[in-house]
Amino acid sequence: MKLLKQILDFYLNSSIHVALSCYALVRITFHFFHIQYDEPMALFVFFGTIVGYNFVKYDALVRVKRKPVGIQLKIIAVLSFLSVILVGYYFFHLKRITQIVSVVIFAITTLYTLPFFPNRKNARNWAGVKIYIVALCWVGATLVLPYINAEIPFTADFFIKCIQRFVLVFVLILVFEILDLANDDPHLQTVPQTIGVKRTKILGFSLLVPFWVLGILSFTLHDLIINLIMVVTLMLFIFFANTNRSRYYTSFWVESVPIFWWLMIAFL
């Protein structure tokens, strides 16, 4: 049992799980826009997520706080290094415009982690900004990149899907912020810190309604039913979220929502 927990912890701490969630959203983008499976694009996002998230999570830990580097962190560093190589490999298989946009997303991620401006903290610590930066990066990586790499003309449907994807990620982050309320710096002004847990849950419920309704404009009946199942599942996650929940509640179960969504689309 202890070994299984160690494996699960490594799986989560190394960002493989969140990378799989991003990969699932890329596959969902392929499905919605009838894009043939593009392996370089999908794996670029998968390995890029590992690199980006590990950079965000462990940069301050090692560079600023000078924490001792244990065996797990060393393995994660090796995994991240291999992921950097694979990101570089798949980068050169993308269209030029996709490469440019991906560099912009990487720049935003770097800004999120490193303090580029004098006497200012990194964007991760800017009051009230974190949730929007993360949501925009997810939309850019999992929807915009696959779309432009497929060289599809921009349509109203594309912008509707962007709004839906942003709302989905925004709601997922709300659950994280509810659980992290006791540990987050008050100066971050996260949504629960600003309006309280009860109103944050109401906000999450409210956002999921137009998320599903907008799908009526472009989804098939099959996709609408699957989306409804996903919306109900997310509402349950929001309802039962509280500061006493285990970290696995968000780090594993909540981040699994895009994976379950993809599997339902693929196999139901």
Description of the structure:
With 268 residues, the chain is mainly alpha-helical. The chain contains twelve helices and no strands. The protein has helices spanning 2-13, 16-32, 39-64, 71-91, 96-113, 130-149, 156-179, 191-195, 197-214, 221-239, 248-253, 257-267. Helix 2 (16-32) crosses helix 12, helix 3 packs parallel to helix 5 (96-113) and helix 9 (197-214) runs antiparallel to helix 10. The mean pLDDT is 88.
Which helices and strands appear, and what pairs or packs with what?
Layout: H1 2-13, H2 16-32, H3 39-64, H4 71-91, H5 96-113, H6 130-149, H7 156-179, H8 191-195, H9 197-214, H10 221-239, H11 248-253, H12 257-267
Brief description of this entry?
This is Prenyltransferase. This protein has 12 helices and no strands.
Succession of helices and strands? HHHHHHHHHHHH
Number of helices: 12
- How many strand units? 0
Strand content: under 5%
Gap between N and C termini, in Å? 33 Å
The value of Rg in angstroms is 18 Å
| Outline | globular
Largest sheet: none
Model regions low in confidence, pLDDT < 50 over at least 5 residues: none
What is the mean predicted local confidence, pLDDT?
Answer: 88
Overall SS class: mainly alpha
Helicity range: over 70%
